[in-house]
Amino acid sequence: MDEKIQELGEIFTEIVKNYSTMGMAWKNIPLCRRAYEIMRELPDELPGEYDTPADKAILLCQMLDHVNETDIPRQCIEVRRYIQSLDPDNEDNNEELDILLKYIESDDTEHLKLGMLKSDSVERSPQWEDVIYAVELEVDEILKDYTRGMGFCHAYWHTKREVLAKYGIDWKTPSMMNPGVMFD
């Protein structure tokens, strides 16, 4: 069990590092998967690490604070449901779970009511979730020498669209979905 605790600590350190580096939160997708697997294997109470199931739930919530949950909503729903089983009274988690459930079922009308930009519904599909890490990895490699500043989002979206097409996903970028909006 000590090896799992050590691995978990290393994963959490890497998760925070990735999240703190602009544009690198996507690297946390497999790390969160692995951390969740380890947490499921550990007991609900582990003196010296966390004393109650609610404390274990807090660790998982902190992990989710460092990932873009809309990239992997189904995975995050699974984690949030587990958190709910550990700490049913955690209102923040319950609220975030409801938001994710609505997100995967939402349409553009719902986004507009909430004052959000339109997004392509493919972003809420299981197909997207299955490939998004590989896509981001490839996009990052293609754009590794590209200056990240004003206007970078357009190069990023264009490249991401091309890579997604290789996976059979016809993705409409935020600028395509919101033609009246100026992005940096």
Structure, explained:
The protein is mainly alpha-helical and 184 residues long. The chain has 2 domains: 2-105; 118-177, no CATH class. It has 9 helices and no strands. It is globular, with a radius of gyration of 18 Å.
Brief synopsis:
The chain is 63% helix and 0% strand.
Structural class based on helices, strands and sheet pairing? mainly alpha
Radius of gyration: 18 Å
Give the number of DSSP strands: 0
Helix percent band:
55-70%
**Poorly predicted segments:** none
- Principal-axis shape equals globular
If helices are DSSP runs of H or I spanning 4 or more residues, what is the number of helices? 9
Q: What distance separates the N and C termini?
A: 48 Å
Query: Beta-sheet strand percentage?
Result: under 5%
Assembly classification = single chain
H/E series: HHHHHHHHH
Q: Name the average pLDDT.
A: 92
Task: Provide the descriptors you would attach to this structure in a database record.
63% helix, 2 domains, 184 residues, mainly alpha
Topology:
Blueprint: H1 2-20, H2 28-41, H3 53-64, H4 73-86, H5 91-105, H6 108-113, H7 126-142, H8 152-166, H9 174-177
